[in-house]
């Protein structure tokens, strides 16, 4: 099933920000960052798209991170690292302050 254009654009930005692939350590802060801007269904669709183009072990890790992000709040330093990486790739939603303790619950 084809992704909506906005989600396809997000996948393109992710690939620009992480041309060699998203490192495992960035999955949870990345999903938290996405979850602050998108619906849970959108985040899941993006994660599934990333998983579908990964090796099976990486795909399983991505899927596990989706569940983990609802229970584990990533460190602000991890979110800042991911935000900076995505901003370098042209990510328009990676503005400073997009995630704070007050809106972190919206990722669930």
Structural overview:
This protein is mostly helical and 108 residues long. It has one domain (5-96): DUF3349, helical bundle (DNA polymerase, domain 1, Orthogonal Bundle), CATH 1.10.150.430. The chain is 57% helix and 0% strand. It has helices spanning 5-17, 27-35, 40-52, 56-69, 76-88.
CATH domain class name: Mainly Alpha
The geometry reads as globular
Largest sheet: none
Number of domains: 1
Helix content: 55-70%
Fourth-level CATH superfamily:
DUF3349, helical bundle
Uncertain parts? 94-108
Record field, number of beta strands? 0
List the helices and strands and how they pair.
Elements lengths: L4 H13 L9 H9 L4 H13 L3 H14 L6 H13 L20
Helix pairs in contact: 1-3, 1-5, 2-4, 2-5, 3-4
Provide a short characterization of the protein structure.
With 108 residues, this protein is mainly α.
What attributes does this structure have?
DNA polymerase, domain 1, 108 residues, mainly alpha
């Amino acid at each position: 099933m084809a992704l909506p254009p906005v989600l396809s654009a997000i996948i393109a930005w992710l690939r620009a920000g992480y041309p060699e692939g998203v490192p495992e350590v960035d999955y949870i802060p990345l999903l938290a960052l996405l979850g602050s801007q998108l619906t849970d269904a959108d985040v899941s669709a993006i994660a599934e798209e990333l998983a579908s183009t990964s090796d099976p072990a990486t795909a399983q890790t991505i899927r596990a991170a989706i569940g983990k992000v609802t229970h584990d709040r990533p460190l602000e330093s991890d979110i800042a690292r991911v935000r900076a990486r995505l901003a370098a790739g042209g990510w328009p939603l990676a503005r400073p302050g997009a995630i704070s303790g007050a809106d972190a619950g919206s990722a669930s």
